[in-house]
Design goal:
The two termini are 23 Å apart. A hairpin with a 2-residue loop joins β7 and β8. By secondary structure, this protein is an alpha+beta fold. The chain has two domains: 135 residues, NADH Oxidase (3-Layer(aba) Sandwich); 106 residues, 3-Layer(aba) Sandwich (NADH Oxidase), CATH 3.40.109.30. The protein contains seven helices and ten strands. A four-stranded antiparallel sheet has the order 1-3-6-4, with helices on one face. 36% of the residues are buried. The structure holds flavin mononucleotide (FMN). The site of flavin mononucleotide has 19 residues, from β4 and α7.
Length: 257
């Protein structure tokens, strides 16, 4: 069992370096076999915080309403959560596993913050609706071939770690809402402090819901990277280091052994 999981982890890890958001889909739905693969993987998502209740539903294009004109995908995963401290970070951490899984199985996907499940879907759960992930057969190039195709900040813009900071590369490549890449990292390969930029007043209105999801995504990329490299990874999210770094919110300490 352990071996099977590590093969899967390797495939997810490789997807970090090739994935991209897919926004154009063929209008045909995924076949039943593929959908059950997705359904089974939903059961395997690893939470960052085990004490937060979550729920994931696979819904169709008619089940969502969009805040802006949107070419719809054949399927969406709607993520719901109990509203508890760190719940958005937790959803980012969990659903990014699915984003990488889909990419590694040649299925297109994209995080969707600008749409919401319709009322009849919301009525099926007492948990809060957090975010959607679209999925389906891609009608555009599915993968990136080279790292240069990622539009991302440079490592020294997102970290003050001295010397070799290549271990942050998987987090650097993480997707984020409006590609705003709100993360900042300090520390070293044994202990990393993870911060989120505090957005200015205007941006905050748009980004405050999404920044924590972005941080969960980047944390999962770090977690997966070090797991694949054979390290024991501990992520502490409740250590109240909030005011330590001006202009940033402390999100987590990652301890590697
Ligand atoms: C929380 C979140 C919300 C997002 N919402 C949308 C969205 O509503 N529409 C969209 O086209 N892309 C959305 N994206 C995708 C980002 O725009 C995309 O990840 C980013 O531009 C980086 O591009 P890449 O994923 O191709 O690497 C979202 C991403 C995240 C993480």
């Amino acid at each position: 069992m352990v071996e099977t999981k590590s093969i899967e982890d390797n495939k997810l890890w490789e997807a970090i370096f090739h994935r991209k958001s897919i926004r154009k889909y063929k209008s045909i739905p995924l076949d039943d076999k593929t959908l059950s693969l997705v359904r089974n993987f939903l059961e395997e998502l690893v939470p960052l915080k085990e004490d937060i209740k979550t729920q994931f539903m696979i819904i169709g294009p008619d089940d969502i309403k969009s805040l802006i004109p949107l070419k719809k995908a054949p399927h969406y995963i709607a993520a719901f959560s109990e509203n508890k401290r760190g719940y958005r970070v937790n959803i980012g951490f969990m659903l990014q596993q699915m984003d990488l899984f889909l990419s590694s199985h040649n299925i297109g996907s994209c995080w969707v913050g600008m749409a919401q499940p319709k009322k009849d879907i919301l009525e099926k759960t007492n948990l809060e609706d957090v975010i959607l992930l679209s999925l389906g057969e891609a009608d555009e190039t599915l993968h990136r071939q080279e790292i240069g195709e990622f539009k991302r900040k440079k490592l020294d813009e997102i970290s003050d770690t001295e010397g070799d900071n290549e271990f942050l590369e998987p987090a650097r490549l993480a997707p984020s809402a409006t590609n705003n890449q709100p993360w900042y990292f300090t520390g070293n390969e044994n202990q990393i402090e993870v911060y989120c930029t505090r957005p200015n007043f205007i941006k905050a209105r748009v980004l405050k819901k999404w920044n924590p999801i972005d941080m969960g995504i980047a944390l999962y990329h770090l977690f997966l990277h070090f797991t694949v490299k054979g390290k024991k990874v501990e992520i502490i999210t409740d250590n109240n280091k909030k005011d330590e770094k001006k202009g940033y919110v402390h999100i987590a300490t990652v301890i590697l052994n």
